[in-house]
Amino acid sequence: MQLQLILRKFLMPVVLSVPILFWGPVATMNHAHMVRLSGNNYFLLAFLGFLELVILLIGWELSFPKLIQKIDGYVTESGHKAVRQGDAHRAMLAIRIERGLYSFSRLLTLGWSFRYFKSDCDVCKGLTCWSLNEGIKRIRRLLFSVPAFLSIVSTCLTLRSNDPDFAGRVDGVWSSFKENLWWNSSDNALLWLPTMLAIMPAVSVLIYVYLHSQKREVRRIIDREMLSRRKEVVLLFRKLLLLFDRNISDICVNFDYVIKNYSIYVRDQLDCVKNDCVSGYNGCYELSVGADGYTFAELNSLSEISGIVSRLSSDELEGFTRAFAWRDEAVWNLYVEGFLWLSSVGKVKSLFFTKSAMKKRIANSKEFLQRLSNGARERYLVKIEESLVADIYFGLRLVYLIERSRSGLRRYLYATPAERLMQKVVSREK
Fold first, then answer.
1. Same domain for 188 and 166
2. Confidence (pTM)
3. Which of 157, 135, 133 is nearest to 42 (CA)?
């Protein structure tokens, strides 16, 4: 995760800056044009290079996510079509492509947001309006950003090749830096030693006073409580992993059955409306082959999973849960996209198509169909089919997140054979 965030800040600015600022015929023409406009003015050249790069990045941030979103829409439509056809393998392939596109888009964007909160409420407008402090923060972030650094480097290289005076100043600064760097000269290093030895007692006194102050005692109490909560989060994630390992096979079998018998479930309700409801026979809504006629599995551990997720999402543990999940991309994706659904027993039963959830779904459909006219029933059944397909596909996506998080949690919680071997070697050396 940390490596991804670093690459996210550096990758696209570097890629876009190479052809316009550093290398290639476009960069050569661009440098010549900027020199003609600004002469050898360092600050103006740096500003122009920075402005060009920022404009390119803004265009990239506006266009690339839309392209990915459009491709994702086609993939999702293909996945829904696979569910309608009872092809579970193709549906899972679509979900894998979706997750790949998601990771790809996160890596190749800076995460800039150009959307603003729109509301007719004056209070909301007052809360989200622009402030001077926020404006200063944004300007500061831009001044110390990767595009600004790249424009400065490009300007230095341009002036070094075009301006002999500037090149001489750069070479002089670099030579002085190499000569006066303390680790390059033993004499300079020795001059630092008495000063460092004189400062050490004062630093040790300050550290002692801090460690034995009342403020530190208070923070130590808080640290102990935080340590206990960190332990609780780790143990809860370990228990969650064990529950996932225990139930993932049954969940997959349930989804396999739902997808293969999806058409039967829809046809039963459709035939009911077409044949019997028109004649006024109310018993058709009982769906004689309803949920009891299907072999939907009842997953008994879902309530326990929901309880653990609810505890991890509580106010006491949410910060520690976020810190734990952030270390691994798969666990973080499950936390961000799946915890909201896994925290409720009713939601998770509905998404995993348990027998009780299907009974409830059929009963709700029956109750609503009874209040509709014959023409409206047909239109509602189309919506039932679309909703069922979307729910199946969303449930498959959640199962995929769970499966990926199992690998991430296992890597994070348990040591590999190589790590255990290294621990044994270190313990023997001690």
1. no
2. 0.72
3. 157
